[in-house]
């Protein structure tokens, strides 16, 4: 739901740096100020010799009972599926499409990660 | 005088294998190019993992993240060539404007170019027995070497996938020919209508004596490999075209249609789009629309094909492009002739490795249509500078006829291929 998504946005660690806000002028200002450029999307290759370690975001504190816990668990598993680099980049595809692609390539993705709705991956809209 | 003998044109079984290049049912969702690189790496890696044990039996295969210093191993990944002279959109934002030359060179190579190998876990700079001039970004290879204390990977040996497997052709003793032509450039200042008309007359049998007509009757197909029209650049620079000039844009296409109608009335013709034709820019270019050819498209011998184009004629496998892939390899790497670039694309098992880096490409999410799975018997590239041809032999008895088709408007040369013996005449 919208409320859940808003809560998750607040609680995610800011390990990936600031969101690219503003347009062309803001981008020029940022380049002139120097400093590290914003990191690439999760699909691009990391620049460092070792892959950038992306912390798996902790699930938000849930107020509800059992049904909520089940949903949060499914969401956590879906996020682990998003983060697993064996199945390729996740940005730009819905979770269902990425699962179908992994199955078609013979990678045997975990069946519980298959979502029937058109949910995009965790980084959608944030990178 | 005796009545003229009617000669019947030979026919060949044709099957079109272009489904992988037509974009139907693809819906763009805003995805980037990382997916096409992932599927390319996945396919090639599965292939290379199967081939490496026979070539380097006792070496472990690791990922970039699993490299250990000083340990001999095999790495499989995508090459990235860092090129100093490659034009980048970010140069517009750069502070040191004076360092960027105003005139872009035709070839972006530089002695400082260096190669980096990438897989999902990371990247590593390459050094050693891998010359950057021979490789381009986007090629997937297996490398034997070891990590040095400087953090590079010192390459001892490069293993490419090599030519894919080929079906053996039965030897047939029949005479059949296929004609290839490209770069007609109808509408340009270098276009000579008489030359094109002579070619058409020769193919349709209106020219020459009985011997020539007998040869012409054995031509089973004509393939037009791109750049058939040339529309004046002043109409294409984004400004509105005046009403009196608007018919001028369509004139070259109408003229091409009239000429093509003569051809299709006589034998099957495949027409492919090129970089100057009214088709989309990114590969794979979609077939030219039938409405452009109001005369020729009424014949069932007319077939508008995508670029790249793949087909079978009497079980002889053909694959070819209008030349953009080879031209881009020329811009980014070095070889002794264009045929060597074509040979490399077959050995790398990928028609256009520089797509999407420096060659426009559709951002596929679940496949890479340019991967070559079975070895063709004939591989052609249109719009090249010269006519060249060679028979490439593979390690497992594969034989490929490589053909570099010159631009017809400049050279007046069309290429005739003898179907079953794989020889070429110009």
UniProtKB/TrEMBL annotation, chain A:
Residues 21-30 have a biased composition (Basic residues). It holds the Pfam family DNA_pol_delta_4. GO terms for molecular function: DNA-directed DNA polymerase activity. GO terms for cellular component: delta DNA polymerase complex. Residues 1-76 are annotated as: Disordered. GO terms for biological process: DNA synthesis involved in DNA repair; DNA-templated DNA replication. It comes from the Eukaryota. PANTHER family: DNA POLYMERASE DELTA SUBUNIT 4, OS08G0163300 PROTEIN. This is DNA polymerase delta subunit 4. It comes from Aegilops tauschii subsp. strangulata.
UniProtKB/TrEMBL annotation, chain B:
It is found in: Nucleus. Its EC number is 2.7.7.7. Heterodimer with subunits of 125 kDa and 50 kDa. Signal peptide: none annotated. Belongs to the DNA polymerase delta/II small subunit family. One of its GO terms (molecular function) is DNA-directed DNA polymerase activity. The keyword Transferase applies. The function of the small subunit is not yet clear. Residues 178-387 form the DNA polymerase alpha/delta/epsilon subunit B domain. Residues 32-158 form the DNA polymerase delta subunit OB-fold domain. Keywords: DNA replication, DNA-directed DNA polymerase, Nucleotidyltransferase, Nucleus, Transferase. InterPro entries: DNA_pol_a/d/e_bsu, DNA_pol_D_N, DNA_pol_delta/II_ssu, PolD2_C. This is DNA polymerase delta small subunit. GO terms for biological process: DNA strand elongation involved in DNA replication; mitotic DNA replication. It is an enzyme of class 2 (transferase). One of its GO terms (cellular component) is delta DNA polymerase complex. CDD domains: MPP_PolD2_C (cd07387). It holds the Pfam family DNA_pol_D_N. It catalyses: DNA(n) + a 2'-deoxyribonucleoside 5'-triphosphate = DNA(n+1) + diphosphate.
């Amino acid at each position: 739901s919208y409320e859940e998504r808003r809560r998750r946005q607040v609680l995610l660690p800011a390990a990936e740096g600031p969101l690219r806000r503003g347009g062309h002028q803001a981008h020029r200002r940022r380049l002139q100020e120097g400093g590290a450029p914003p990191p690439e999307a999760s699909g691009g290759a990391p620049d460092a010799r070792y892959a950038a370690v992306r912390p798996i975001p902790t699930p938000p504190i849930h107020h509800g009972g059992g049904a909520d816990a089940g949903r949060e668990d499914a969401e956590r598993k879906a996020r682990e599926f998003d983060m697993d680099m064996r199945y390729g980049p996740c940005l730009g595809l819905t979770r269902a499409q990425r699962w179908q692609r992994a199955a078609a390539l013979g990678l045997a993705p975990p069946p519980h990660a298959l979502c029937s709705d058109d949910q995009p991956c965790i980084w959608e809209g944030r990178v | 005088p005796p009545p003229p003998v009617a000669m019947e044109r030979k026919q060949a079984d044709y099957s079109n294998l272009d489904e992988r290049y037509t974009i139907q049912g693809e819906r763009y969702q805003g995805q980037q190019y990382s997916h096409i690189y992932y599927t390319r790496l996945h396919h090639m890696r599965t292939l290379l993992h199967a081939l490496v044990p026979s070539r380097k039996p006792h070496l472990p295969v690791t990922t970039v993240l699993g490299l250990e210093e000083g340990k001999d191993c095999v790495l499989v990944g995508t090459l990235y060539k860092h090129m100093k002279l490659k034009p980048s959109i970010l140069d517009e934002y750069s502070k040191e404007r004076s360092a960027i030359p105003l005139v872009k060179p035709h070839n972006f190579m530089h002695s400082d170019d260096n190669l980096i190998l990438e897989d999902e876990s990371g990247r590593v700079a390459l050094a050693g027995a891998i010359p950057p001039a021979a490789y381009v970004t986007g090629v997937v290879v297996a490398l034997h070497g070891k990590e040095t204390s400087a953090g590079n990977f010192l390459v001892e040996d490069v293993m490419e996938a090599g030519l894919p497997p080929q079906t053996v052709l039965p030897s047939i003793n029949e005479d059949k020919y296929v004609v290839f032509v490209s770069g007609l450039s109808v509408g340009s200042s270098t276009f000579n209508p008489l030359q094109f008309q002579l070619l058409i007359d020769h193919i349709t049998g209106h020219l020459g004596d009985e011997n020539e007509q007998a040869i012409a009757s054995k031509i089973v197909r004509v393939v037009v490999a791109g750049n058939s029209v040339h529309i004046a650049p002043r109409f294409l620079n984004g400004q509105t075209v005046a009403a009196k000039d608007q018919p001028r844009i369509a004139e070259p296409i109408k003229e091409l249609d009239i000429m093509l109608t003569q051809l299709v009335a006589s034998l099957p013709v495949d027409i492919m789009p090129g970089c100057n034709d009214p088709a989309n820019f990114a590969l794979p270019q979609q077939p030219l629309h039938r409405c452009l050819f109001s005369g020729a498209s009424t014949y069932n011998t007319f077939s508008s094909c995508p670029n790249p184009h793949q087909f079978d004629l009497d079980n002889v496998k053909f694959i070819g492009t209008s030349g953009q892939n080879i031209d881009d390899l020329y811009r980014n790497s070095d070889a002794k002739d264009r045929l060597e670039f074509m040979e490399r694309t077959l050995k790398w098992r990928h028609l256009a490795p520089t797509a999407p880096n420096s060659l426009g490409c559709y951002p596929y999410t679940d496949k890479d249509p340019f991967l070559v799975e079975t070895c063709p018997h004939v591989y052609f590239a249109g719009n090249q500078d010269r006519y060249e041809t060679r028979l490439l032999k593979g390690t497992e008895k594969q034989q490929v006829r490589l053909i570099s088709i010159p631009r017809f408007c400049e050279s007046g040369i069309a290429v005739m291929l003898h179907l079953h013996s794989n020889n070429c005449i110009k």
